[in-house]
Write a structure and sequence with these properties.
Blueprint (H helix, E strand, L loop, with lengths): L2 H13 L6 H6 L5 H5 L7 H27 L5 H16 L8 H14 L4 H14 L2 H21 L7 H82 L5 H31 L15 H10 L3 E7 L8 H21 L4 E9 L3 E8 L14 H12 L3 E6 L5 E7 L3
Parallel strand pairs: 1-2
Antiparallel strand pairs: 2-3, 3-5, 4-5
InterPro entries: HATPase_C_sf, HATPase_dom, Sensor_HK_TwoCompSys, Sig_transdc_His_kin_sub3_dim/P
Protein name: histidine kinase
EC number: 2.7.13.3
């Protein structure tokens, strides 16, 4: 059952609530005053109609029983009057069959044995018990009825039917009543189970949608950090150099301004791509191609142009053959490590090493020595390294980072290459 179908059928079900029993409406937990307050639900229009029909049926059976007793000259008039009184009270008890089905059925078992006019009430009470209570209660009460049937017809034989025929007829009637009641109960339980399954399906669909949205937001946030942090760090470093060294040679000012302009242009381009993904809902493959391991030389060249000292040791035969996801992860790791080295250890020589091959995996290492002198504090929450660890884990690899023995900092990752 789809959530759309359930949503369409729910209003129809609510509009036709008068057609269903009050007990079923209560079990379905629809928006009713009785459900919210925890009280027993009021009878619906259908309940009143059914109960009134059961009352009329019991009265009709009782009238037939009275006529049978009056036509039997062997029955004293006092017994007929007492039987009529018991039958009248039994018919009035029909209205209690929804509130106390087990109690009514248990009481009517011995009463119907001594009162012929209460037979219809006993059958209706057994049917109500089969509808509202589990089978174990029906088995006990129905079993007692089945044991009393031979004694009843032995005590009060039917003048028009032989003893065996009366036994068979009444036994078939008991089985039919119990079977009908169990069928009604199973149908209601089926409706309850379908309602419960529909609710679970709606909840699971909502949770899946929320999980997908959360995953997409995390991926976009990670991508924005990895892409823009590198560019913005270049802007910050060179803008700071221009601020603190206004008397620098013209060539250095021109070079720094060029790096700022180029970095700002690249940052805007990357931001435009990410916003385009948000608008179109497409994957990260939209827009210009994502960087792979083959673009590592360009990244190092940009860092060197920005004034960093970077040594690249790439020992990967045929870097173009590296899987795109693995190459992109390695590129992002090197990019983030260079950004951190530029912020926290400016002026140091950064060693980048990439090695590996098919079947043995890809090893990426970025290491820088401790900075010389005091380094001004740079704001950061360590989210970049957390994102790199998550990237490596999603790619099936591992990432470690921390202080080196000489006081520097090292980022080391191992990625699978099948």
């Amino acid at each position: 059952m789809s959530t759309e179908k359930t949503a369409e059928s729910a209003p129809v079900f609510a509009e036709r609530r008068w057609f269903y029993p009050s007990a079923l409406l209560h079990e379905l937990d629809l928006d009713t005053d009785a459900t919210r307050s925890g009280r027993r639900p009021r009878r619906t229009a259908r309940d009143w109609v059914v109960d009134f029909c059961c009352f009329l049926l019991a009265v009709l059976v009782g009238l037939l029983g009275i006529q049978s007793l009056m036509d039997n000259p062997a029955v004293p008039h006092s017994v007929v009057a007492a039987d009529q009184m018991i039958g009248a009270l039994s018919c009035a008890a029909i209205w209690l069959r929804r509130r106390w089905p087990l109690g009514l059925a248990a009481v009517m078992t011995p009463v119907s044995f001594v009162s012929e006019t209460s037979g219809g009430v006993a059958v209706i009470a057994l049917f109500s018990l089969a509808v509202h209570r589990p089978f174990r209660y029906v088995a006990w009460v129905g079993g007692v009825h089945a044991l009393l049937v031979p004694l009843y017809f032995w005590w009060r034989p039917d003048p028009e039917l032989p003893y065996l025929a009366s036994l068979v007829l009444f036994t078939v009637l008991l089985v039919a009543v119990v079977g009908w009641g169990m069928f009604v109960r199973s149908k209601r339980q089926l409706m309850l189970s379908l309602r419960d399954r529909a609710r679970r399906a709606e909840t699971e669909a909502r949770l899946r949608a929320e999980h997908a949205q959360r995953g997409a937001r995390e991926a976009i946030a990670r991508e924005m950090h990895d892409v823009l942090a590198h560019r913005l760090t270049l802007l910050s470093v060179h803008a700071g150099a221009l601020e603190f060294r206004p008397d620098a040679p013209r060539e250095e000012i021109v070079r720094a301004a060029g790096v700022i302009r180029e970095s700002a242009h690249e940052a805007l381009q990357d931001l435009r791509e990410i916003i385009g993904v948000l608008r179109t809902g497409e994957s990260e493959d939209a827009g210009r191609p994502q960087p792979t391991l083959a673009a590592l030389d360009t990244l190092v060249a940009e860092s060197r142009q920005a004034g960093m000292k970077v040594i690249l040791d790439q020992r990967v035969p045929g870097s173009a053959a590296v899987p795109a996801s693995v190459g992109r992860t390695a590129y992002r790791i090197v990019q983030e490590a260079l950004t951190n080295a530029r912020k926290h250890a400016p002026g140091t020589e950064v060693a980048v090493s990439v090695a590996g091959g098919p079947g043995e995996g890809l090893t990426v290492s970025v290491r820088n020595p401790p900075p010389q002198g005091d380094v001004p504090p740079v704001p950061g929450a360590g989210q970049g390294l957390i994102g790199l660890t998550e990237r490596a884990t999603l790619a099936g690899g591992t990432l470690e980072h921390g202080r080196a023995p000489d006081g520097g900092f090292e980022v080391r990752a191992r990625l699978p290459w099948g």
